[in-house]
Amino acid sequence: MKIGIIETGRPLDGMLEKFGDYPSMFANLLRGADPDLEFRTYHVLDGDLPSDPADCDAWLMTGSRHGVYEDHDWIKPLEEFSRRAAEMGKRQVGICFGHQLYAQAFGGKVVKSDKGWGAGAHTYKITERAPWMVTDDEAVSCIVSHQDQVVETPPGAKVYGGSDFCEAGITTIGDTVMTMQCHPEMSKDFSSDLIDLRRERMGDKVSDAAKESLGKGLQRDVLAQWIVAFLKG
């Protein structure tokens, strides 16, 4: 199975060299659930946009420091691509920015939340079950890093889990799109460095709480299993 990774962002300065890029982080994560997966990366920020949904068996859109409501010349083409892929029955997964772009593309609303920064490890309570949830976890903890949130899900969307901070944490849109606001590809070390880099923007209170939250266990492998199960259909 070949998964097209739509890379919409890059790690902050200094982190790329230490941790690698987002596509490599996702490849490492998902191969833990299926070692035979193949990947092709589309570097959107360099003008390398996917054009034909048939080029890959399924698709995954990464996180980004950009907002889906910003005026970038690649936002609308990605929205159009995601709708065409859905019409063709292609499975798609969106993470963080990807979660928000799919919501916007299918009629939802994304804003910079007045709740402020989410950072560190958050726990999403699972409120609905689906066949692709191949483990019986009632809650999953994972790294988050965002200000923007989906505040209105698209018509036909379903919420499977979230938190008081982010209610629409895990969603589906129709039968072929699944999204997560959290970052299963990110490790505790990655999050710790990111918090340090953003401390001035987030403030000491948020940053200190985010650092403390990294003491909890993460269910990255569980979310990897869910993503792979969904993409395989």
Automatic annotation (TrEMBL):
Xref: InterPro entries: ChyE-like, Class_I_gatase-like, GATASE
GO cellular component: cytosol
Residues covered by the Glutamine amidotransferase domain: 76-187
Name under which the protein is recorded: GMP synthase
Source organism (scientific name): Hwanghaeella grinnelliae
